[in-house]
Design goal:
Elements (H helix, E strand, L loop, with lengths): L4 E2 L5 H17 L14 E2 L1 H4 L23 H25 L2 H4 L3 H28 L1 H13 L14 H5 L2 E3 L6 E3 L27
Antiparallel strand pairs: 1-2, 3-4
Helix pairs in contact: 1-5, 1-6, 3-5, 3-6, 5-6
């Protein structure tokens, strides 16, 4: 087997998911033509991954190839959750950043933002492939949810990827007026120093 395997054929349930993915792109206003010749390849680096579990209670045992080999339901649930959260953040990032393509100050900045969005969609695409291919009906349901949740509507899994909450973590720079994250020590637009202390929660220390 080559160092990196690129999957060439997809199961039916993932083909169905791809149709939903295309609809998602339309809903958020992402034109597929912007991708150019970029491909959403599914890639696995099996040589780097190895064949044995590296740590934990099952250290040294062969890695599981199918979900039915996973010995405990709570382990399978945890794996599905981790894959789902990872995929959710990828699509949420695209929803957050989509407006950058219209507001980029230069063509170079626009291409850079687009490249990031392409990579994030591919990462989310691969997470959906894992869910659809290896985790049965539960995985298919979770893959569908990756496209049902939306950062604009505040329904993404992690709060920081929901725009309403994320925007509360920004303020206007006193020097140039640009909106910047609260915890940046210097404004990325004008370089002015920022007082970040007021954005930390002050707690009184209790002495027992």
């Amino acid at each position: 087997m080559a160092d990196t395997e690129v999957v060439e054929s997809y199961p039916t349930n993932f083909e169905t998911w791809i149709e939903e993915f295309n609809d998602w792109q339309t809903r958020i206003g992402f034109d597929p033509s912007w991708l150019g010749d970029y491909r959403f390849d599914i890639k696995f680096d099996w040589d780097t991954a190895g064949n044995e579990i590296e740590f934990g209670d099952f250290e040294g045992m062969p890695k599981w190839d199918r979900r039915m080999q996973i010995p405990q339901q709570n382990i399978m649930d945890a794996i599905i959750t981790m894959v789902s959260v990872q995929g959710d953040t990828e699509f949420a990032s695209v929803e957050q950043q989509n407006h950058l393509l219209e507001t980029a100050p230069t063509e170079y900045d626009k291409k850079s933002a687009l490249r990031i969005m392409c990579e994030e969609q591919r990462h989310g695409w691969q997470m959906a492939y894992l869910l659809c291919t290896f985790f049965g009906e539960q995985g298919v349901r979770e893959a569908a949810k990756l496209l049902e949740r939306n950062a604009q509507e505040g329904t993404r899994i992690l709060g920081s990827f929901n725009l309403k909450k994320a925007r509360k973590q920004f303020h206007d720079c006193d020097s140039c007026g640009e909106s910047i994250p609260d915890l940046l020590a210097n404004c990325p637009y004008c370089g002015a120093e920022q007082d970040v202390s007021k954005y930390f929660e002050q707690r009184e220390r209790k002495v027992h």
